[in-house]
Amino acid sequence: MGGSGSKNKGYWPFAGSGSVDDPTKEGNEQSLAKLRSFRNATPFVFTRRSSLYFDEDGDLAHEFYEETVVTKNGRKRAKFKRIQKNLIPQGTIKLENPCIHVDFPVVLCEV
Predict the structure, then answer these.
(1) Coiled-coil segments, which residues (predicted)?
(2) What pTM did the predictor assign?
């Protein structure tokens, strides 16, 4: 549901040095330079991907349903059918308050 950890190789600057893709063990200087260039990265997250969608009418919601009338044994019954086609994701939204990234390795506490 919430944020998951970084899954891209070499993307997050706070990755532990004991990982399998450690550039110092491979001797790959380009990967090492790439890792060092991210040392000044901030541990805060300022944007996130929204879980909301736009439908054909421009309405914004998590899920969309359409009411259908089903006739069974001579009785009319209303059912809701979930719409999953023609939905456009809202995209990236800016957070009002920055959050700390889930992969930040330092324990933060108040003394």
Answers:
(1) none
(2) 0.53
Q: Which domain holds residue 49?
A: 41-100
Dig out the tokens for 56 from the structure: 């054909």
As for how many domains the chain has, the answer is: 1
Q: 54-79 burial by CB neighbour count: b if 16+ within 10 A, else e?
A: beeeeeeeeebeeeeeeeeeeeeeee
In a domain, 108, yes or no: no
Distance of CA 71 to the CA centre of its chain: 42
Rounded Cα distance, 6 and 9, in Å: 8
Tens digits of residue pLDDT in 29-38: 544 444 444 5
